[in-house]
From TrEMBL:
The keyword Coiled coil does not apply. GO terms for molecular function: ATP binding; DNA ligase (ATP) activity. Belongs to the ATP-dependent DNA ligase family. Residues 2-146 form the ATP-dependent DNA ligase family profile domain. It comes from Pseudonocardia hierapolitana. PANTHER family: DNA LIGASE 1, DNA LIGASE 1/3 FAMILY MEMBER. This is ATP dependent DNA ligase-like protein. InterPro entries: ATP-dep_DNA_ligase, DNA_ligase_ATP-dep_cent. The keyword Transcription regulation does not apply. One of its GO terms (biological process) is DNA repair.
């Protein structure tokens, strides 16, 4: 039994617990699924990344394998079969399956699907995948991932680019002690809005709570991020997805947020503390 990524990189050495479970349960099958690590009642992407670095952390961050689909069973290639047939095969194969293995739920009811999409945001579920019942296994051409988004406020603590016309905003939220913590950044701001946002920002004084250079983030940075600090007094409303990670144990958004508007009527003190277990980078 072996595990491999979509890019065909071997993951077998890093997840001996999952490999053992799969080997005990299955013979002559090829499955499509996802490795996850849970902590504090939600998916923990940062812990999963640690597992990809070393198998020695398996005991402190046990992984699970969530099964989506089946490509082969008993020597039969099932990729050309419609999804409804593959799903029936999966249900027979996985009847009575126990942790750390699990079959991902499936529904043809739109209301139930929407409930899955919006009802598990606190658990870090990013979205659902839509497949046609009559289509073969062609993930890149026929499947659609529908992400779950929510609205949230944050404080602007810095910018990328000039303060007068920022390219992106570096965002913070207060923690339980009232200290402003970096939680993420925005996607690039549309050019026609940059100057307007810049009029609301002021260069930071010497007492700014953040360092002059930020650690590399999970947004494609390979080196420390240089940015301009601003007075943390402007609150903005954002559209964010449910993907949360952790930096030094603190929650951060794993993907950039989309800026919706400036909340001029809100003061930074109006934002509630960011619960450490409510939210990943």
């Amino acid at each position: 039994m072996r595990l491999q990524s979509r890019q065909l990189h071997s993951l077998t050495p890093f997840f001996p617990d999952v490999v053992d479970a799969l080997g005990t349960w299955f013979r002559n099958v090829v499955l499509d699924g996802e490795l996850v690590v849970c902590g504090d009642g939600r998916l923990d992407f940062t812990a999963l990344q640690r597992r990809l670095a070393s198998s020695r952390v398996a005991a402190e961050a046990p992984a699970s394998f969530l099964v989506f689909d089946v490509l082969e069973a008993g020597g039969t290639d099932l990729r050309a079969y419609p999804y409804k047939v593959r799903r029936a095969v999966l249900q027979r194969l996985l009847d009575g399956l126990a942790p750390p293995l699990a079959l991902v739920p499936m529904t043809t009811d739109a209301t139930a699907a929407r409930g899955c999409l919006t009802g598990h945001l606190d658990a870090g579920i990013e979205g659902v995948v839509a497949k046609r019942l009559n289509q073969p296994y062609r993930p890149r051409s026929t499947w659609r991932k529908v992400r779950a988004y929510t609205s949230m406020e944050a404080i602007v603590g810095g910018v990328l680019g000039p303060i007068s016309a920022p390219v992106a905003l570096v965002l913070g939220r207060p923690d339980q002690r009232g200290e402003l913590r970096v939680v993420g950044r925005t996607t690039p701001i549309p050019r026609h809005l940059r100057a307007e946002i810049g009029t609301q920002l002021r260069p930071a004084c010497a007492a700014h709570p953040w360092p002059a250079v930020l650690r590399p983030a999970r947004y494609g940075d390979s080196a420390p991020v240089e940015y301009a600090r601003v007075e943390p007094r402007v609150v903005v409303e954002l559209v964010v997805d449910a993907a949360i990670g952790r930096v030094q144990g603190r929650p951060v958004w794993r993907h950039p947020a989309n800026l919706r508007r400036i909340r001029a009527e809100l003061h930074p003190m109006d934002l509630s503390p960011l619960a450490s277990d409510a939210w990943s980078e």
